UniProtKB/TrEMBL annotation:
This is TMM54 protein. PANTHER family: KERATINOCYTE-ASSOCIATED PROTEIN 3 (PTHR31258), TRANSMEMBRANE PROTEIN 54 (PTHR31258:SF2). InterPro entries: Beta-casein-like (IPR020977). It is a multi-pass membrane protein. The gene is Tmem54. Its main location: membrane. It is found in: Membrane. It comes from Tichodroma muraria. The keyword Endoplasmic reticulum does not apply. One of its GO terms (cellular component) is membrane.
Length: 185
């Protein structure tokens, strides 16, 4: 992931690129989580249903992990500009470790959410709709959202979130290793 003997100029470039990637991936992850919440989960999540509650917790954790990743990216960019301050190095070390661990937890939570959704064939996602025929749902006022594609859309967005979480983990660990090298640990 990181070569052991980089000169300061190379370290700056690698840190800057890693920080930019973390910023971009973090923002994309945040947007994906917001889309899932705004289009489906705000109607579905209830405290009485463990599966829908898991959906809400996993999605909220994904958004929080995205914010941590964005913070890690900003810190990496700052450190690439100013390699001297030890406090900034320690802050990036803590942020990259927390971001990577949080993203790993979110990845596992999203995998469980996908498994639950596939297992119950989307019934929990369609629970707010009190209609007998899903094909008539777009013309019905008994459903707070258009349920015709909610199952496939949610699974697609969660698949994108999984990919983004994996990227956040990879580049978070890369940032962690770069910081460890800069701190000479």
């Amino acid at each position: 992931l990181v070569s052991a003997h980089l000169d300061p100029g190379s370290r700056r470039k690698v840190l800057m690129k890693t920080g930019l990637i973390l910023l971009i991936v973090g923002h994309l992850s945040f947007i994906t989580g917001a889309l899932v919440h705004g289009t489906v989960l705000r109607f579905v999540v209830t405290a009485r249903d463990a599966t829908s509650l898991h959906y809400g917790v996993a999605n909220s954790a994904s958004v929080i992990a995205a914010l941590l990743t964005i913070s890690c990216g900003v810190s990496a960019l700052l450190l690439s500009r100013y390699l001297g301050p030890a406090a900034l190095k320690r802050a990036l070390l803590a942020l990259s470790a927390c971001s990577s661990l949080c993203c790993l937890c979110c990845l596992l939570g999203l995998l469980v959410a996908i498994g639950l959704t596939l297992g119950n064939q989307g019934r929990v996602l369609l629970a707010p709709c009190s209609i007998a025929n899903i094909a008539l749902a777009p013309v019905s006022r008994e459903c707070p959202f258009d349920p015709t594609r909610v199952y496939s859309s949610t699974l697609s967005l969660w698949a994108i979130s999984l990919l983004l979480e994996a990227m956040e983990i990879f580049f978070g660990i890369r940032c962690l290793l770069l910081t460890l090298e800069l701190l000479r640990l």
